[in-house]
Amino acid sequence: MTGHLLTVGDEILLGQIVNTNAAWLGERLAEVGVDLRRSETVGDEVGVIAGAIERATADGAALVVVTGGLGPTHDDVTRAAVAQAFDRPLEFRDELFERIRARYEARGRTMPEIGRVMAEAPVGFEALVNPKGSAPGLWGEREVDGRSQVVVVVPGVPHEMRAILESFVLPRLVERQDGVVLSRTLLTAGKGESDISALIAEQADGLPDGLTLAYLPSLGEVRLRVTARGVDREAARRDLDAATDAIRGVLGTLVFGEGTATLEAVVNDMLRERGLRMAVAESCTGGAISARVTSVSGASSVFCGSVVAYSNETKADLLDVAPATIEAEGAVSEAVALAMAAGARARLGADVGLATTGIAGPTGGTPDKPVGTVWLAYDDGDTQRAVRLQFTTDRAVNVALSTTAALDLVRRQLLRRPA
Amino acid sequence: MTGHLLTVGDEILLGQIVNTNAAWLGERLAEVGVDLRRSETVGDEVGVIAGAIERATADGAALVVVTGGLGPTHDDVTRAAVAQAFDRPLEFRDELFERIRARYEARGRTMPEIGRVMAEAPVGFEALVNPKGSAPGLWGEREVDGRSQVVVVVPGVPHEMRAILESFVLPRLVERQDGVVLSRTLLTAGKGESDISALIAEQADGLPDGLTLAYLPSLGEVRLRVTARGVDREAARRDLDAATDAIRGVLGTLVFGEGTATLEAVVNDMLRERGLRMAVAESCTGGAISARVTSVSGASSVFCGSVVAYSNETKADLLDVAPATIEAEGAVSEAVALAMAAGARARLGADVGLATTGIAGPTGGTPDKPVGTVWLAYDDGDTQRAVRLQFTTDRAVNVALSTTAALDLVRRQLLRRPA
């Protein structure tokens, strides 16, 4: 099924917001087997939006997904544009109006008069319930030159768009595929894309017909998505599981999870399963590890807290790092990293201590310790472990890579302890 | 000048990376007066890319900016596509080859054989030096139906794309405008878009001809961009400065800076100018304030460090918050916030203490203190100040809003002290 994505909004065109919807939709549509040919952003003009839908149709797009411009204000013109492209009038629907009004009232608010337009839909279009907002989505179908075409219209507010896609649109697209599309995503940390691809070269080359493998790298992590397309669901599932399990077998502990898990959530779960609590001493990461660990709801049961020690005095006063050690070895050293991890553990009453000290840059490097030099340390009372890493000259990149590497160090150490 | 932006790359279409280039270019092109009509992403196929350029041309685009697909690998086909769209052959240029080869050698590397293609350009195109990478940009011009058209081609790597735009492309586009386009951007924190627009309604309504005002909101901050278009540079500058200064006058201390400044960099600079150092005690923000302050190079001269106190024990042990206070008032309270700020200041030897305590959510709220309740506190020894805020039910949003509000609280307090 070929697809075309149309994002509507002056604010996207003007760069006032980044189009994260396009990335999310691109990935999700690929997973359900849509072959996205173009992704296009246009401004809030009826003629321009309708023209873009007509052009996608002329290009043979079997699916057009339109996001944005479904709100109640005068610059929300997507309903009118879709009606024009399909040459069907807009109709006011009482049942949509009632649902929208009830939603406002459930929140103790009165529906504004301008909200009435959200109850309009082009004749023949199905309204899709919006679980997270007022404006319903729309699903329309037609025949063009003997080919069937689906046009899906959803709000631009990301969590509303996602909710409608996940509840209605994606499952329905899966049903409409000729056959089935299934996928599994393995999450890895600790190796780059080229190392990973070298490790699993045999499995990747030996994938049976109908299976494909995609690498999705980000800072310090690589996701591997295996997709199976076939006629028989059972056979596709069997092939997918066999291939994914084989890759997982080769990668071993490089894989930290599957699907939409995050490294920080996995680490928190591992701590919880082992009845452990963690404390962090951060120097070069400046609070980024703590921010990531606490971004997961429920972190308070496994995370005591942290000390961001940006000065030698703080390392000494709050983490009990001996000034003589800093003097002798330097603040960026194995000895100081280990002392910080031990200090965080002791001072915050934690089972596990994690520490970072390094030169984030862009300045502050020396020949021995260039910018990007980072020491990580782990201490759980029984085991002490320190690792030296060498990253880039970019401050933000170094912080992100150090943060991922530190969380992965904890994960690897916890794997050695029974859950 | 009407414009069309074309992003090339399967990885963008598949959602493997977010197209931040489109937002950056959208904003910069708007600043220099380009009226961007469409922004489009297509895959790595010669015919599809050439077709998109032809379609933009048919739509009358005076400027087409193409990003991506200029590297040395087999899926980098943008050079060939542009040559096809312009119906001009590619030629190998010795001077480009020498520059690319010298760049590799300056880094102690040998230019790979596949790198030769980066020295090719369509006949008649000007090569634009890439200050940050190997592949040069391209600038081509032609007449189409009596109208002149410019096609600019730049790499997709963000810092390379930006460098070429800023060095060559944007200045040249400014020169080509009929007249001049100038802009100033005011950065505000502490009020939402609707409050700001109500405050400056008179100034906005009274903008002279040729001046426009755009609101660029993000979490906790609103940027106001004033743009002046005119024939006479001096007159445009005078109008722009008068209008912007008038708006700045009304908004007063809501404005924290101009241009590309950040709130964290402004706070760090204010601390530095006053010879002060700051320490932070974070509960609900979980390290996000520290991460933001330390994202600015040179933070170590004004930032002692922080304690992320996720448990009551840590608040007591490392920040000297009296357990009786927590018992009596609750961890999310004015008294605890103030005690945390004082504790951070004292224990880290700082001049200024900043603290947050709140219920980030999505769970943990009570009728008295619903999810999104946040206390912020500031303590510089002379002045103690606490603020209660009520945000949303979304954890990530609450952390981001609390972080911005906390930094803005420090800024406002420091404004009262002489620099």
TrEMBL record, chains A, B:
Q: Which domain of life is it from?
A: Bacteria
Concerning Pfam families, the annotation shows: CinA, CinA_KH, MoCF_biosynth
Instruction: Extract the SMART domains matched here.
Output: MoCF_biosynth (SM00852)
Q: Which InterPro entries match?
A: CinA, CinA-like_C, CinA_C, CinA_KH, Competence-induced_CinA, MoaB/Mog-like_dom_sf, MoaB/Mog_dom
Q: What is this protein called?
A: CinA-like protein
Q: Where is the MoaB/Mog domain?
A: 4-176
Listed CDD domains: cinA
Q: Give the similarity note.
A: Belongs to the CinA family.
